[in-house]
Amino acid sequence: MKKLIAVVLSLVMVIGITACGSGGSGGSDAEYTADNPLVFRVSHVEATDSFLHKSCEKFKEYVEEKSEGRISVEVYPNGELGDYETSIEAVKANTQQMTCATTSALASYDPKLGLMDLPYLFESKEQMEAAINGGEVGELYTQWLEEDGFYNGGIQYDGARGLSNAKKEVKSPSDLKGLKIRVMQSDLYIKLFEAFGANPTPMSFTDLYTGLQQGTVDGQDNSPMLTYVNKFYEVQKYYSTIDTVYAQCVMVCNKDFMDGLPEDLKAIIDEGSAEYLVKYQRENAIAQEEEYLKDLKDGGLKVTEIEDKTEWKEAAQPVYDWMKEEVGEDYVQQIIDAADSAK
Fold first, then answer.
1. What is the dihedral of CA 139, 144, 150, 156, to 10 degrees?
2. Which of 46, 110, 154, 332 is deepest in the core (most CB within 10 A)?
3. pLDDT tens for residues 157-182?
4. Cβ(155)–Cβ(281) under 8 Å?
5. Which 8-state DSSP code applies to residue 124?
6. Using CA atoms in the order 42, 47, 48, 53, what is the torsion angle rounded to 10 degrees?
């Protein structure tokens, strides 16, 4: 039903764009005014109390005020316009102008866009920030996205991917044997949890709470923030800080659309993205991660903090070998070198 609604909404948007000649159609010769604004639609799958949504709201406020109403930003949270894959398709078709897409979802267009999801690519959050926010990893992704027709509107921090489950405390990969773990619809995450000995089960994020509640899956791998704000703690008992990936989401736009905007409006969107979709979101998401762990404990979960991740890193190594076969050893080495440059 959610996907049907998303398709209907997308069709309505297409009709709207055709009828009014605005609604995000772009074009440097377009005359956007407060009475005939450029409609800039932004979607994501997270809850309204996430820093992602708060950053989108601040972006909306900044862009509308700075453009004096020549841009009207519409923000759609909670997967209202569909899941990651549906929204990426909509951006490709320019029926919406920006979406927050996981790197694993973007990998469906180009496998190398999933390289930032390699387990334990970064040794610390400090290294991650230096590599992504103005560093070589961020530069690589801008280049790779453009090759596939996307515009990099900024990279958001989606949290250290821990593990929750309803069955037992997890301290080592061997504890995952037999557990059904929801993973993103991503070959990399399927391979990763197979390497850990779990039974990985792909499932849409928008269906995850129900899947946990009904026991379709035993657990899920998401950050403390996503686990808390989506209330997964209500249907889980344990959480372990395995921190396989410092996850990132890319605010992707259609490159042709962005390149076709009047220069002053494009500059306003870029400024708002840099200040709120990147700086504000990343600073707050990183700073609050420990607080969300406390919130999970208060919500009734037994939280196991794993300091030494050597065993996890060793178990994850087959993913690197598999990825080299998928995208080529050169690309894998390229992302490793880019990450290492920030050490």
1. -50
2. 154
3. 999 999 999 999 999 999 999 999 99
4. no
5. S
6. -40
> Count of CB atoms within 10 A of residue 75's CB?
18
Q: How far apart are CA 218 and CA 182, in angstroms?
A: 8
In the chain, what is the straight-line distance between the N-terminal and C-terminal CA atoms, in Å? 46
**Rounded Cα–Cα distance for residues 181 and 174 (Å):** 14
Q: Which two tokens stand for residue 11?
A: 């069709």
Whether the CB-CB separation of 74 and 40 falls below 8 Å is answered with: yes
Alpha helices (H) along the chain: 2-20, 51-66, 84-93, 103-106, 125-132, 136-147, 187-195, 208-214, 224-229, 255-259, 263-272, 281-287, 289-298, 310-327, 329-340
Residues 32-55 pLDDT 10s: 999 999 999 999 998 898 889 999
Q: What is the DSSP letter of 236?
A: -
Indicate yes or no: pTM above 0.90.
no
**Please, are residues 157 and 281 in contact by the beta-carbon 8 Å criterion?**
yes
In angstroms, the Cα distances linking 331 to 46, 323, 326, 334 are 31, 9, 10, 5
